[in-house]
DNA sequence: CCAATAAAGGACATTTTTGTCCTATTTATT
DNA sequence: AATAAATAGGACAAAAATGTCCTTTATTGG
């Protein structure tokens, strides 16, 4: 609707990793894909991206998996995940696809989009994985279905 | 960023048709594609969709083309174009791609998305082609580049 | 050291979106 | 009636996004 499928899986995966990390549990790709109801191999690719972008931490070998430490959960905001996967489309792009749309040379929707985008941007930049994981932990929110 | 490419072209095309219709000019696919800087044949398909959805009016044969009458420009809102081309994804879909995300069983971002989507929805439902075309006419906004 | 386990990564397959080309249909003009 | 101009529509092509499979690399525990 707004993010790519890859980004949707990425956010859900990161939130699940955060949730389990609250209990000190490291989680595997298989478990993540199972718990967020996503295709395993594709999810593995996305987790690689997130790991390369330092959004989550990965450990190879037996007992390995993905994790986040408590401080990272606070510092990692949704905007970092979206940026790592979808790039800066949401921030930069014109709603009507113009290359050089800006306040000087705006598309007909420019001003109307500015407000909506600002709200979205603020939301993404102010929402941490910790915040999302705790909602899940308490059973208020869900990651599947 | 938010709409498909097809929808971006569709909105730009419809606004251009409205603009020219203000002067009583009927416009061809070729002229539209030229003026909004879009691929001709693809634009033709999109105009077909808009015509079938009664968003714009088409006339075949010599002197034919696309047009809108003054009353239609007021009644046609952006939401109708978006709906005709992209369906109701923007209205219905969960931000994280869950099938059954709602107030009872929300995804972690549900509440945060509700506000943003409501604003987007209101904007689309309250913006008419007439409003957008007049901005263009006065030279305040642009449809290319 | 060896075996097993888990992520990393490359190559490939499928699906969707975007885009093109050609023919058919409609209609105004002569 | 013939011609030409315009949209309608079907079939195809290319590109991007999504998704799978298999091999390599790192690491743990026996």
From TrEMBL, chains A, B:
GO terms for cellular component: cytosol. The lineage of its organism: Bacteria, Pseudomonadati, Bacteroidota, Flavobacteriia, Flavobacteriales. InterPro entries: Tscrpt_reg_Rrf2, WH-like_DNA-bd_sf, WH_DNA-bd_sf. GO terms for molecular function: DNA-binding transcription factor activity. Pfam families: Rrf2. It comes from the Bacteria. PANTHER family: HTH-TYPE TRANSCRIPTIONAL REGULATOR YWGB-RELATED, WINGED HELIX-TURN-HELIX TRANSCRIPTIONAL REGULATOR, RRF2 FAMILY. SUPFAM superfamilies: Winged helix' DNA-binding domain (SSF46785). This is Transcriptional regulator, BadM/Rrf2 family.
